[in-house]
Write a structure and sequence with these properties.
The chain has one domain: Uracil-DNA glycosylase-like domain (Uracil-DNA Glycosylase, subunit E, 3-Layer(aba) Sandwich). The chain has 9 helices and 6 strands. The chain is globular. About 4% of the residues have low confidence. It binds iron/sulfur cluster. The site of iron/sulfur cluster has 15 residues, from helix 5.
Length: 232
């Protein structure tokens, strides 16, 4: 393939990912900007508009070295008005390929975990600490965590979830700015900018260690209880 064809291919892939992301946000309704005879630049106001503006910014991010090895930025997906945000560590191989969070085997398990507490993926918003895949699924480096969490914090600021479920040690450590172990992080309900935050095991870890399923079940039941109490 020559450079010209490769550039055209990249452009088409970008457009496709953008349209897919629009579909995640708006379903089958296509968002069309209002026509105006006056050239007035409107600041995005609604949560979907603000998230979309952030997505356009993040999809071209080159603020850390992971931009060189990624195939796609995995911004996150779900309901911009979600009461619950699920935050994992970083995209894996399948997520990197598709540009969507939690679409591999761990993602299927996550969907089942949500269903067990009567939640659908479309009701929550799912994101990661890092938006680009670390090569070989290595742990995100401190500098990568520090740089990329700015994008996540903007997402949280826009969505304003009432609950956050941190999936895995890295997500818990970054959000709570601590070096505590998974065992130390589990079991408490933390405050994160007004949201109640619970830390549990990452679904990928559960696939490798079945013995952590019971603890995870306890954590998500706690989340469900808090959520249902909030809705009363
Ligand atoms: S991992 Fe985050 S900071 Fe690094 S390039 Fe990707 S979006 Fe930017």
């Amino acid at each position: 393939m020559n450079d010209h064809n490769r550039t055209a291919g990249n452009l088409i892939a970008d457009i496709f990912n953008y349209l897919e992301y629009q579909k995640d946000l708006y379903g089958d309704d296509v968002f069309v900007a209002e026509k105006s005879s006056e050239k007035v630049i409107h600041e995005p106001q609604t949560k979907p508009q603000r998230l979309n503006a952030l997505y356009l910014e993040v999809k071209n991010c080159q603020q850390c070295g992971l931009c060189n090895s990624r195939r796609n930025v995995v911004f996150g997906a779900g309901n911009p008005d979600a009461d619950i945000m699920l935050i994992g560590e970083a995209p894996g191989a399948e997520e990197d390929l598709q540009g969507k969070p939690f679409v591999g085997a761990a993602g299927q398990l996550l969907t089942k975990i949500l269903a067990a507490i009567q939640l659908k993926r479309e009701e929550v918003f799912i994101a990661n600490i890092l938006k680009c895949r670390p090569p070989g699924n290595r742990d995100p480096l401190p500098e990568e965590r520090k740089t990329c969490k700015k994008h996540l914090y903007k997402q949280i600021e826009i969505i304003q979830p009432k609950f956050i479920l941190a999936l895995g040690r890295v997500a818990g450590q970054v959000l709570l700015e601590t070096e505590k172990s998974m065992q130390q992080l589990r079991g408490d309900v933390y405050d994160f900018q007004g949201a109640k935050l619970i830390v549990t095991y990452h679904p990928a870890a559960l696939l490798r260690n079945q013995q952590w399923k019971r603890a995870t079940w306890e954590d998500v039941q706690k989340l469900q209880k808090l959520y249902l109490n909030e809705k009363k």
